[in-house]
Amino acid sequence: MKKPLTIKDIAELAQVSIATVSRVLNNNSWVADKTRSRVEKVIQEHNFSPNLLARGMISKKTQTLAIVVSDISNPYFVMLVAQIEHESLRLGYKVTLYDTQSANRTSREAPVVPEEHIFNSITDSQIDGVIILGGNIDYNDIAATYLQELKKLIATVPVVVVGRNLPGVEYACVERDQAGCVRLATRHLFEKGYRRIGFIGGSKNVYITREREAVFRAELEAAKLPVENSFIVLNNFYLQHGYEAIETLISTNTSLPDAIVAINDHVAKGAIRALKDHNLSVPDNIAIVSCEYFPGSEYFIPRIATVDHQNALIGKAVMTKLMAILNENAAGIAVEKIPLTLLNGESC
Questions:
Q1: What residues of the chain score a pLDDT lower than 70?
Q2: Distance, first Cα to last Cα, the chain
Q3: Given its phi and psi angles, is residue 244 left (phi above 0), alpha (psi -120 to 50 degrees) or beta?
Q4: In terms of CATH, what superfamily is 64-176+311-340?
Q5: Whether CATH 3.40.50.2300 fits 178-308
């Protein structure tokens, strides 16, 4: 019996790449009409059915996944990549990491690699699945070129995004509870008796900052507490921005808030250092609670009260979704939100 041709054979007969054949099979619009016709002609001449071709594609799996991360120096991404890689290896997959530095645009040391260039490179390579961790997808204003390449990538290879669920673009998504973490942090301060509360950290250009700030304001209003705009400083997500936020609060206010909600543990640590440099104690003079736990914060003095987004669960959820899609299970596309846990500390 004559052995069925594989997708590689079809690509060779049509004089195109394997990725191009895959796009034609997926009815991807990102193929020139002339090229599409040539590939379809080869498929028809050899009487290929989608099922036979799918089996050929499966046999050509490389057991390789791509992780596109927007800043591997960020502790959140470090532990998330570690969890995903652990799950990947357990399931028999190796990982290729792409660090774009798009989340750290203020760094003079790290050049930004356009994510759309990476997407285009992945589309033309033999990768079984792609995991996107933050980046341009999390920005308020998303460039048309990025969306174009993202849609092209999604049409070619299974994709799971940890971050924003964009309307009008269908992909598997694991969302962190951006609203819930602020509610937990702010209400924790309410329970401790704090009423004059500020909010620091986060970039205005990123959707999670917008969401977290909006929830913070809503929580104060619901508690019938004043929202002091001068107590809100949005700058960025790193240690130095926590420090700078405190400097801004001190220079623009005659009196400081009694407590602060920091967007993450990095910002909280920078803020605590700045307060110490101004001879202010945490929590005696100002209390601080963080919206996002980073490993090691439990050893900081004072131990930071923070919200754990449970990255171990996120890593497992990502791989569960990706495996479901690779096994053609439509349930993998559903959006999943991971529960939160408040970690008590000494900072408030």
A1: 1-5, 26-30, 47-60, 102-113, 329-334
A2: 75
A3: alpha
A4: Response regulator (3.40.50.2300)
A5: yes
